Amino acid sequence: MKHVKDVMFRQVITVHRHTTLRQLLSKFAEFHTFPIVPVVERDNILVGIITLKNLLDLLKPAEPEILKTIPFLDEKPIEISSVELSPEMGHLVVVDDIMENKFFAIQEDMSIEEALRLMRLHNKEQLPVINKDKKFTGVIGIFDIVTHLFSGKGIF
Amino acid sequence: MFNTILSLGTVLIIGLFGARIFSKISLPSVTAYIVFGIILGPYVLNFVSPDMLRSSALISTIALSLVAFSLGQNFTISKLHNIGKSIFAISIGEVLGSFILVSLAVFLIARQSLSIALILGAIAPATAPAAVVMVTREYRARGRFTDTLLGVVAIDDAWSIMLFAFCIAIAKSLTGAHTGIFATIFSDIIHGFWEVLGGLALGVIIGFIFSYFLKYINTLPHLLIYILGLIFINTGASILLNVSLLLANMALGATVANKVKMSENIFDVLRGFDPPIYLLFFILAGANLEIPSIYSLSILGILYVLTRLPGEMLGAFIGAHIAKADKNIKKYLGLGLAPQAGVAIGLALLTKSYFPGAIGDKILSTIIVTTIIYELIGPFLVRIALKKAGEIDKLPHDYRKVQ
Fold first, then answer.
1. For chain B, which terminal residue's Cβ has fewer other Cβ atoms within 10 angstroms, N or C?
2. Name one GO cellular component term (chain B) (predicted).
């Protein structure tokens, strides 16, 4: 049985809590889509992740977390024409302000079947991978599993 | 006139676009649904089939179960820690203030039975977060007052639901709506405890079952079915065992939030399912309104409207004083709690299913009429509160200028 560590992608670009929004965006400007970005501390302990959703939240007015639990609240659509953004945000906003503290990470010795199940259940295409010491070791995505299957059959 | 499926479809589509029109004049979807419910209902257009009207109790039970489950997720250790002392104190103060004032007025001035007084008092503190949030967004209100106000409206429906569950248990004992072997005061007390504690225990047990078997769930659609199935079992078992279905579902939500890793995902999945249920629930609430009763808005309704807001303001003042909150919060926060809608109507519909006779009718007709009043004047009062607190920093966002 294959494990996550046999399939996962290891050369992942990571950021720190103090990385600024400008640094973050310029790092990923050349990618076609925004990936999940792991946030690590100096000893490579995974402390958070940043996804496209966290960037989108910057475009919405700040609201308390507790409002998310209210039923029948109208979702406020983002109005691109009236978004309040100032150039100072580039260096004033740091990763620590926008990252997701609560995230789901999987262990590198988990089977890929279980990893795939968790990704489907949590509706995620990629998840960060950690080892037993909670240190960040890579990212596994549905794409990694699929290419692994193709290469295993000699297709590429 | 309409068959059930045709009126179901009509209701969903008219509700959807009605809410869009209302959002242009800055009224929340909930208000739109209630107003369009009245228009589609038997007194105006008569587009709602009798079968659908009869299913109101079922829809409202399901909708309230989902609301209670969703509110339960606030009760995790980390979230309670984040709520903060002043929001905690103000929300408790506001809930008790309006409960006591409304109950006393209904009992002493309107000379209604103690059961009606307690139930109306327990419904009074419920606030409509949607309306409050809409106003804060529209006027781009920011600051400590706004944050405290949003925190209080987010949590006070949970307190209100708990208080309502207690009061229903007491009212059932007072009216003898339950059948016991020993019909004594002692058995009434036991019954009250059973209804409250039994509900909590049932929710916790189902919550443990939920988290244990979650490992066998592989896909999102299965997760949705699994959650709904267990919420319905929880609700149905509550009715069967004669315990509070609101507390049972709140306890289920709290247990899931505490026990399951990444439980946000579970609550998110439900959000993909519940909007049409809530739409139906509010439209049917509007359609159920006896239009003739508006003309005869009784002394009961007038007293409710006149005492609810002062009760909230007084309670919020005392709570803010205890928590040593700012002067503005003390003075004006209660005013920001004026809007009332969804949860209040849901609780009134639920009361009717417990007391199908005169008590239920009296409470439902009072609440629907007073809700319309509070939902219409509420947003203006929220605006005044924000303005007095000095947290409206910009002119209202005018959508016409954007085009």
1. C
2. membrane
